[in-house]
Design goal:
By secondary structure, the chain is mainly alpha-helical. The protein is built from 9 helices and 5 strands, in the order βαββαααβαβαααα.
Length: about 250
């Protein structure tokens, strides 16, 4: 039988940059693992803001139990307990991929995870996975915690540094967006004011259509006012005619 479409299937691109903020850990990892096996290159940024269901105390107990799993004779042989949020998420994805096979190794090689948004991904378009968003998959009253907070409780020491770098990045992003809006506004104004009378016949000759310039917003507001002033004043409506009085009934009707 034919299988239905995969939930959260991404559009195949060279590289997909996923913003991990406000995504559920397991749901995001399962979708990322499937896309990696299909050949998609994925970069996950802001891994420290990925959400885990359950309270912080509960997740601390579970992670402490995980830390007890080790090789008695030589702990360096594993399992390795990563403390950084990016590597913790990477390990969750690895558990959903056949990483001991060649196919799984190639899939894991297509995944990159980071805390914060380092260069060059800070200038790339970022996407979200609706099927993994906390606001859509976790009830508002349910307890949850952040992956970065859990990592800080077990030895990750770079939360303050990442937040400092993120604050600087947000300032640069705001400046870039303001310049982008100004440039778009200036370009739109220049296109409206451009005189294309000399080149319009040449463009039409080669099959290019040039849309007429749209009027300015101020002109649109002034035109209705001018039309209203040009119209003559409406005559007052005639008073309604008085209602006719009923005729007296004949004696035989009673």
């Amino acid at each position: 039988p034919e299988r239905g479409p995969t939930l959260g299937k991404m559009v195949f691109e060279n590289v997909v940059v996923v913003d991990g903020r406000a995504h559920m850990l397991g749901r995001l990892a399962s979708i990322v693992a499937k896309e990696l096996l299909l050949g998609q290159h994925i970069v996950v940024v802001r891994a420290e803001q990925i959400v885990i269901s359950g309270s912080l105390a509960r997740n601390k107990v579970k992670f402490a139990q995980f830390l007890k799993k080790r090789t008695n004779t030589n702990p360096k042989k594993g399992p390795i307990h990563y403390r950084s949020p990016a590597r913790m998420f990477w390990r969750v994805v690895r558990g959903m991929v056949p990483h001991k096979t060649y196919r799984g190794q190639q899939a894991m090689g297509r995944l990159q995870t980071y805390e914060g948004v380092p260069q060059p991904w800070d200038t790339k378009k970022k996407q979200v996975v609706p099927e993994a968003l906390k606001v859509l998959r976790l009830k508002a009253q349910r307890r949850h915690c952040l992956l970065g907070r859990l990592a800080s409780e077990f030895g990750w020491k770079h939360a303050a540094l990442v937040e400092k770098m993120e604050a600087k990045r947000r300032v640069r992003a705001a400046e870039f967006y303001a310049e982008k809006k100004t440039a778009a506004k200036n370009r739109s104004a220049a296109e409206r004011e451009a005189d294309l009378a000399a080149v319009l016949p040449v463009l039409e000759k080669f099959g290019h259509y040039v849309a007429p310039a749209e009027p300015m917003e101020d002109d649109e507001e002034e035109e209705p006012a001018a039309e209203a002033a040009a119209e003559p004043a409406a005559e007052p409506a005639a008073a309604p005619a008085p209602a006719a009085e009923p005729e007296p009934a004949a004696a035989g009707d009673y």
